[in-house]
Amino acid sequence: MKEAMHYVKKENDVVQCELCPWKCVIADGERGVCGVRENQKGKLVALVYGKPVSISIDPIEKKPLFHFLPGTDVFSIGTVGCNLKCKHCQNWQISQEREIMGEKLMPEEVVEQALENNCSSIAYTYNEPSIFFEYVYDTAKLANKKGLKNVMVTNGYINEKPLKELYRYIDGVNVDLKGFTEEFYTSVTGAHLQPVLDTIKRISKMKTWMEITNLIIPTKNDDLDKIREMCGWIFENVGKNIPLHFSRFFPYYQMSEISPTSEDVLLKAREIAMKVGLNYVYIGNLLTEEGENTYCPESGKIAIERKGYNILKNDVEKGKCSCGEKIAGFLE
Ligand code: SF4
Q1: Nearest C-alpha to atom 3 of ligand 1 is from which residue?
Q2: Are residues 197 and 287 in the same domain?
Q3: How far is residue 259's CA from residue 3's CA, in Å, rounded to a whole number?
Q4: Range of the structural domain that residue 259 is part of
Q5: Which of 91, 104, 259, 302 is deepest in the core (most CB within 10 A)?
Q6: Can you tell me the distance from the alpha carbon of 232 to that of 31, in angstroms, rounded to the nearest whole number?
Q7: Which residues contact 121 (CB under 8 A, 6 or more apart)?
Q8: What is the per-residue burial (b if ≥16 Cβ within 10 Å, else e) of 256-268?
């Protein structure tokens, strides 16, 4: 059993976890909101340490990360549990599972398997990786020593101190900005918007490469004025070079009654984001003519051409388009 990091002891064997904005106060024998951090006689224990329930080798484009080692494979792991309760979660079978399960795979074995499978990086993904903090931390530190990169796919629900501690070893991240109103966050995810915005701002000041995903759900967060506002916030607080992925919603879990996002809305959202001034805007979960390609912001040429998760053409050399303009990212 691995003792958790980032918690304080209170009176009567009660502990308070300080890992994410919930700051759960946990009595002996109880667990926090995420379901994977348990108070055992006054000691907070990380129950899913070394217990991934999902292990797979994916193209990095699937995370999605489009400006980070394009065309490489990433060794991906996830556990059970999550600190959010999204009604549309695609991985709800693991994220909302409270029985601790998974095969034993310790950090050194994760790194070994990533290297054996010629992966360039390890991704902490599928469920929310912040809640298996200690497992990510130990694995990422080791991977870093062995020359592997580390990638998080996260909801951004993590406090400042653990974020800063962990992201020293995180090279790339995709943050899910699920909507741009507090009402959306409370009603659909059970959490709050501001902590996610705070995380995005904090990461933007670090050396970690960041991309943002926004899943557009019809009738829930598809208001184009709000999307414009969100893009404006990203532009002002992070800058024009952060890739933004608009993703198509499909009916799922507790949102099986809602129709998939129309192509029209996704195209309009992309147009709005580009008008606001963002240089790299993508459409995911839907094949469109331009929505997966990286265009050079200077010459307008296709710098990287994609179809699905495949790269058809990559004209970026030493981080530059053939016209000489720099394409942002981890593209060396
Ligand atoms: S990580 Fe889990 S236990 Fe800790 S504060 Fe967040 S939800 Fe609560």
Answers
A1: 32
A2: yes
A3: 44
A4: 54-314
A5: 91
A6: 39
A7: 60, 69, 72, 74, 75, 114, 143, 148, 149, 150, 151, 171, 172
A8: eebeebeeebbbb
Q: Is residue 215 part of a domain?
A: yes
pLDDT for 143 beyond 90: yes
Q: Which two structure tokens, joined as six digits, stand for 315?
A: 């004209």
Reference 163, options 194, 124, 198; nearest CA is 198
Task: Return d(Cα 311, Cα 71) in angstroms, integer.
Answer: 6
Instruction: State whether 7 and 110 are in the same domain.
Output: no
Express each pLDDT in 32-41 by its tens digit: 999 999 999 9
Q: What CATH number has the domain bearing residue 300?
A: 3.20.20.70
Task: Tell whether 240 is covered by a domain.
Answer: yes
> pTM, whole model, 2 decimals?
0.97
68 and 42 within one domain? no
Distance CA(131)–CA(83), nearest Å, equals 7
Q: Domain tally for the chain?
A: 2
64 preceded by a cis bond (ω within 30 of 0): yes
Burial of 74 (0-12, 13-18, 19+ CB in 10 A): buried
Q: Could you tell me if the CB of 20 is within 6 A of ligand 1?
A: yes
- Any ligand 1 atom below 6 A from CB of 23: yes
Write the pLDDT tens digit of every residue in 5-21. 999 999 999 999 999 99
Give yes or no: residues 307 and 181 share one domain: yes
The verdict on the CB of residue 215 being under 6 Å from ligand 1 is no
- Same domain flag for 31 and 80: no
Cα–Cα distance measured from residue 332 to residue 218, given in angstroms and rounded to the nearest whole number: 38
Q: State which of 33, 47, 134, 135 you would mutate to test the pocket of ligand 1, scoring each by most atoms of that ligand within 8 A of its C-beta.
A: 33
For residue 321, being part of any structural domain is answered with no
Q: Coil, strand, or helix at residue 325?
A: coil
Residues 80, 96 within the same domain: yes
Looking at the structure, tell me whether residues 134 and 172 fall in a common domain: yes
Say whether both 107 and 21 belong to one domain.
no
